[in-house]
Every structure is written in structure tokens, then in C-alpha cells.
Amino acid sequence: MGEAGIDPAREIVVYGGGGSAYAYFAQVALEHFGARRVHVFHDGFEAWQAGKRAISASPSTRRPVVVKLRANRALLVTTNEVVDRVGNPAVQFVDARRLGEFVGEESETLHGGHIPGALHVHYAEHFVDPDTPRKLMARETTDRSGMALKDRAGLARLYARLDPRMETIVYCHTGIRASMSAAMLARLGFRNVRFYHASWLEYGNRLDPPVAR
Predict the structure, then answer these.
(1) Residue 73: pLDDT above 90?
(2) Is 23:16 a contact under the CB 8 Å cutoff?
(3) Where in the chain are the domains?
(4) Which end of the chain has the smaller Cβ count within 10 Å, N or C?
(5) pLDDT of residue 177
(6) In the CATH hierarchy, which top-level class contains the domain 79-203?
């Protein structure tokens, strides 16, 4: 980060393709290492280009800076911590995977299913057209505009069953999709959102954790 001139003490804007969860993963990583003013340009490069704003194809460099990273350990949660919290009435879980993954019909791990008590909200439900990621993968469209975010009321409805005052742990399969969900919860005012980076890839390959289907 220092060689790239990225200073976590300054305001940072992250973007990727329109609606990309990877930009949110970068946000979580930056916040974990101490950045306090990180924003995601959700509509991404396509929207910037459509707005006829300046675009460059040349490499850009920033002056290197001295960076001292301090991990925010409260943001991330480990598998052992997750296992200890299963069944705790003061903790709520959000599963950002596809429904097939959630119910165990799709599985790349030793166990298929979900963390007992988890609320299922697929990350694509944040979009005005939740089917757009599938359409893009199937090459049925090249238009990413359907991945624009729902308005605040629409996002709030997705999580109406949760208590924003409680510890809320978000996971998916590898942590990428869950990073967007964690950002949406924080945007909605949830006070203690924790990111389970190892997610189901680690949880589902352990022998001891409880699993629901």
C-alpha cells in the first residue's frame, strides 16, 4: 500500500465493474487495516464511462507513503469464534450465498447447508434486478444496470427480521459476496457488523461445527 501511495489515513474510493462485490471486499480489507473513510462507487466504471467523464488508459503512479497498519480485530471473526456463537441469542447470522448453497443442494465442502439460525439474503437481492448476475454469467445480457442498488427502504426490507443493535455476523462461501452484505448492513445503521472472512469454505470443511439444512 505504501509503495502504491495508498494512505489509509486519507479518504479512499474503491470501484470495479458495476455492482462488483470485489470493490466491497477491498473496502473491508482497508477498514480492517485502519482506514476510516472508505467509499465504494457501486455503479463502477461503466457508469463513469456512460457519464462521459474523463478516462485514461495510461498507468498512473502516486508518491510512495509510509504506512503503519493496525488491524481492527473487532471487524473480523474467526471460525472458532463463530462456532462459539452458534445458538447465542445475542448474535445473528446472515448467509449471502445462493439458495441452493444455503439449503445444501450445492456444496463444494465436506458439509452442505448453513449455520443454524442464519437469515438467508442472497447478495444479489441488494440489486434492483437480482437476476442480473445470472444473466451476465449466461451471456443473456451485457447490461449491468440491473445491478444498481435498491433504495434504502428496499434494502431495509431485506433485513427487517434482524435487530440492528445485535452482533451480526455475515458470511458466504469465500467472503467476497458477504463483503457487500456487510457494507449494506453498516449503511443501514447496524451497530456491530462482523465479517466472517473464512466463511463456508472453512466452516463447511470442519468436522465439529453444527450445520443446518
Answers:
(1) no
(2) yes
(3) 79-203
(4) C
(5) 98
(6) alpha beta
